[in-house]
Design goal:
The chain folds into two domains: about 1-70 and about 245-298, Rossmann fold (3-Layer(aba) Sandwich), CATH 3.40.50.620; about 80-195 and about 225-245, Glutamyl-tRNA Synthetase, Domain 3 (Glutamyl-tRNA Synthetase, domain 3, Alpha-Beta Complex), CATH 3.90.800.10. The longest helix has 17 residues, at about 20-35. With about 300 residues, it is of the alpha/beta class. The mean pLDDT is about 95. It contains eleven helices and twelve strands. It has a four-stranded mixed beta sheet with strand order 7-6-10-9. A three-stranded parallel beta sheet has the order 1-2-3. The chain has a three-stranded antiparallel beta sheet with strand order 4-5-8. It is globular and about 65 Å long. Bound molecules: glutamic acid (GLU). Glutamic acid binds near residues 10, 11 and 220.
Length: about 300
């Protein structure tokens, strides 16, 4: 594959809705515009919420909209060993630590931290003996990325990390954004229940699949700060980001999987054509039913 490579990476936790149709149009449209490729990737590491019937519905809806993609489609649940290997590298390099805290304990730690630490969690590895006894007791744990260790590892490069964000619309004006992983604190890299995380699986797959451009919603714009750091720590190439807005209902709230009336399946069954979907999306944009700045992290 040469030129622009992007991907549409839904999680099969429900039916796709009008907002997804717009998101898919942004990604597949960018590939078409550039003569590049848009991959489909199924992000199903959350085994409790993902279902095969939603995965099948995703392919059906996207084909109905007229998109196509190279096969085979990468399904993250088929590649858990790859994420474990990436995690092992971070473990060997001392860049992650075990966190045994419950959600409640993490929330309490954030609340009692000095104000300048922000609303994020920053921790440290437990002393050896304490950790040993928790492990012996079978306590579950997550792996968290240590920003302190990351900074020590990268030295001056840590502060020099940046990434390119391009405008969604042609001519895709580019700007460089300084990576500020501190906005997220010590994020979970491997969840207690999943052995990996969105951050690790996504960064790993984007590198492995040769993704050059990530085109996704403004709700995920902030993730680039942490993803850029992970790329640097794992020796992966940086990518270029574009962010699209999120379609909303008349109430100004972004569409969610529970909004049955705007699922592509419901719209199709009500007799709408793919062209109607395009028209509905344009109408939303023209009427301002789109959130363009959901990103809180700049
Ligand atoms: N799987 C994510 C979602 O459905 C998208 C992740 C991404 O594009 O990086 O929201």
């Amino acid at each position: 594959m040469t030129g622009l490579v992007t991907r549409f990476a839904p999680s099969p936790t429900g039916l796709l809705h009008l907002g997804h149709a717009y998101a898919a149009g942004c990604a597949f449209g960018a590939a078409k515009e550039a003569g590049g490729t848009c991959l489909l990737r199924i992000e199903d590491i959350d085994e409790t919420r993902c279902r095969p019937e939603f995965e099948a519905a995703i392919a059906k809806d996207l084909r109905w909209l007229g998109f196509d993609w190279p096969e085979p489609v990468r399904r993250q649940s088929d590649h858990l060993a790859g994420y474990t290997r990436a995690l092992d590298r971070l473990i060997e390099d001392g860049l992650v630590y075990r966190c045994f805290k419950t959600r409640r304990e993490v929330a309490d730690a954030i609340a009692s931290a000095p104000h300048e630490a922000g609303e994020v969690y920053t921790g440290a590895p437990l002393p050896g003996a304490e950790e040993r006894s928790l492990l012996d007791g079978g306590q579950p744990y997550a792996w968290r990325l240590s920003l302190k260790a990351a900074r020590a590892r990268l030295g001056a490069n840590y502060d020099a990390l940046g990434f390119t964000v391009e405008a969604l619309e042609p001519p895709h004006e580019a700007q460089t954004v300084k990576a500020r992983p501190k906005l997220f604190g010590d994020v979970v890299i491997a969840r207690k229940d999943a052995g990996t995380s969105y951050h690790l699986a996504s960064v790993h797959d984007d590198a492995l699949q040769g993704v050059t451009h990530i085109i996704r919603g403004v709700d995920l714009a902030g993730s680039a700060h942490i993803h850029r750091l992970l790329q640097a720590l794992l020796g992966y190439s940086p990518v270029i980001y574009r962010h699209h807005g999120l379609l909303t209902g008349p109430d100004g709230k972004r569409y969610a999987k529970r909004d049955r009336a705007v699922t592509l399946q419901a719209l199709r069954e009500a007799g709408h054509t793919p062209d109607d979907i395009g028209a509905l999306i344009s109408q939303h944009i023209a009427q301002g039913h789109i959130l363009r700045h959901e990103d809180m992290h700049g």
